[in-house]
Amino acid sequence: MDKEDLKRQAAARALEEVRSGMKLGLGTGSTARHFVELLGEKVRGGLDVIGVPTSEVTRADAERCGIRLTTLDEIDRLDLTVDGADEVDTRLELIKGGGGALLREKIVAAASDRMIVIADESKWVDCLGKFPLPVEVIPFGLAATRRAIEKAFTQVGAAGQLKLRDGEAGHAFVTDGGHWIVDAHLGRIPDAPRLAKLLSEIPGVVEHGLFIGIASTVVLAGTEGIRTVERA
Ligand SMILES: O=C(CO)[C@H](O)[C@H](O)COP(=O)(O)O
Fold it and tell me: What parts of the sequence cross the membrane?
């Protein structure tokens, strides 16, 4: 079974949690896209839901699939967000933002009663940090912001290279919010909750890819089957 099959299986399991009338956060990335496609099939079969997309790419996918969309300005809370992740640890702390949508993903997940993370089992780790940690930054004063980010890493005993994410034609990658992303190649993040707090205090940092205490459930699809882990 290839990875896309596993991602789709995880997405299908999460879909079992969706009921008519729900307001849903729609994640970004290849695994979340499977969920959007499967949800679209249900919607075409009569399921009545409304979604808030976490990126322009997901907005386009959802529209193509016939899913009704709204915004967080028009509705209050969401019942459920289903999204992928780049890494998940045993405390259900996440690294997200490989696809560059971390800011909207975090806003949407935080506005949801539940967040289900869907992933293939390769995303499950003992310690976060092998996947480069995305940090969304304001272009103004980038060098100063980078220094502050590096200081935060030192404070938690982490170290590694910070690389500005490349976009098209030699330009920096630009997020849906018009910001840049620096990816931190740390290898290991010893204290993710503390690092999350420190990064949030840096003025030039818009958001970071550490999702702490946000995911309620992780659905992991592997060759042995599907495993569901709930946050303690
Ligand atoms: O955080 C994300 C996008 O910003 C994605 O959820 C994350 O990168 C996982 O993507 P994929 O399902 O393609 O592995």
Answer: none
